Amino acid sequence: GGWFALAVGVLVFWVWMWRTRILPPRVADAVLVLIVVGAATALTIPKVREGCAAVLSFNLDYTFDYNAVRFLDPSLEGRAEMSRATWQMFRDHPWFGVGPGAWHWFHPQYRIESLTLSPRYAHNDLLQFAAEYGITGVALLLAVLTGFFWQALSLTRRHFSEDERAISLGSALAVCALLAHSLVDFNMHIPANALLIATLIGLTAGISDSEHFHRKRLPRAGRIVLGVLLLVGAGAIAWNAFRLCSAQRHLLAGRAAHTGRRWDEAIHRYREALAHAPRCAEAHARIAEAYLFQNTPATATNALAAYQQSLDMNPRDAAVVFSMAMAQQQLGDTNQAFAAFRRAFALDPHNADYWTEFGRLQERLGNNDDAMRAYQKAVDGHHPDANHLLQRLRRRIENQNR
Questions:
Q1: Residues 6 or more apart whose Cβ sits within 8 Å of residue 344
Q2: What are the backbone angles phi and psi of residue 163, rounded to the nearest 5°?
C-alpha cells in the first residue's frame, strides 16, 4: 500500500508538471526517466528485492499458462475476500448504507466460510465508506473531492504566489497518495490521518481565489456568534471525549480484575464505565461475562439480563447472542439456547466456534446427525478441535451400531 501510494503521488506530480509546463517538456521527460532508472536501481538492493519476492512472483519466460507477474497471495491477506463481502453489503443497502461505523457488525453475515478473521475494518476505506453511507454518502464525498481537486488545479494554473501554489500542489499530491493507500488499508480510521487530510483540504479551500469567489467579511456580531458556537461545539466534543476515555479506563480496570477472577471488583468497574457512558454495550456484555464465569444458576440469570441489555444497544453483536446461548444452556433452557444459536448463525453463519458449541449441545441431546453436520461446519471453518470431535462422534456411532 505504501509503495502504491508513493507511485500514485509521483505520477500525479509528473502529470501536473508536464501539463502546466512549469518546466520545459524535455525536463519533465528527463524527470520521468530518472524515476524509472531510480526504481530499477532500487531493485538491485537486496532488501528491496526480498520485499518484492515476498509479495510478487516474476516469470521472465512468459507463457500463456503462467503470468509474468503474479501475487503470491491473491487474496492479499484476506483483503480481496473482505472487499467482495463489502461490495455485496453495499449492493444490499445501496442508498444509505448500513450506517456509520457499522461495517464491523455486518461483515460476519457476508464473509466467506474460509475467512476466519474478524477484522474491525474492510482494509479498503473507500469501499467501506460506500457500504456504510450508501450512494448518498458517496455522492457527498465525490462532491467534496471534486471541489477540492478543481480548486487545487485552478490554483496551480493561475498567477498565485509560489507559496500558495506549493500548498495546493502538495495538498493534492498528499490527498491522492492517502486515497490510493486507502484502497488496501484503513487510513481514514486512524484519527491522525483523517485530521491530516481534512487539514490539507481546508488549507487549499482557504486560499483566496478572487476570480471565482468573492469573500465577504462577517459583521462583528456574526463573528462573535460564530466564535461562541465553535467554542460550545469544541467543549461538547471535549466533554464527550473525556467521558468516553473515563469509561474506557474503567473497562480496562474491569478486565484486569476479571482476569484475576475478582468478580465483584470487575462488576463494580464495569458499572462505573456505564456511569460515564450509559450507551456502552460492551460494559453490559462484560458484566454478563463476570456473572457467567461464576457458574451458578443465580449468576447465569443475571448474566442473561445483562446480555439482553447489551443487545438492546447493539442487536447485531453475534458474540453476545452466542454467549446468551451458553448461559441458557447453564440454566437448562434448551429451547431458548437453540433460539439463541439460530440468531447467532443468522448474524455470523460461518463462525467455527459457534458451530462447535452447537455440535456439542446436539451431541449431549443425542441428535448425532445434527451434531455431525455442526462439527463438519466447524471443520470447514478451521476450528482446531472440530475434526477431533467429529471423528470421536463417528467412532462412538460405529461402536453403537456393532
A1: 318, 321, 322, 325, 351, 354
A2: -65, -45
Helix or strand run (H / E) with residue 71: strand 69-71
> Three-class SS of residue 102?
coil
Query: Dmax over Cα atoms in the chain, in whole Å?
Result: 95
Q: How far apart are CA 52 and CA 43, in angstroms?
A: 9
Nearest to 154 by CA among 163, 165, 144, 162: 165
CB 115 within 8 A of CB 82: yes
User: Among 90, 150, 174, 95, which residue's Cα sits nearest to residue 126?
Assistant: 90
Phi, psi of 56 (to 5 degrees): -115, 150
pLDDT in tens, 223-282: 999 999 999 999 999 999 999 999 999 999 999 999 999 999 999 999 999 999 999 999
SS3 178: helix
Residue 262 cell numbers, joined: 475478582
pTM, two decimal places: 0.81
Lookup result for grid cell 512468459? 62
137 grid coordinates: 454518502
Is-contact 76 184, C-beta < 8 A? yes
Contact 133, 376 (CB under 8 A): no
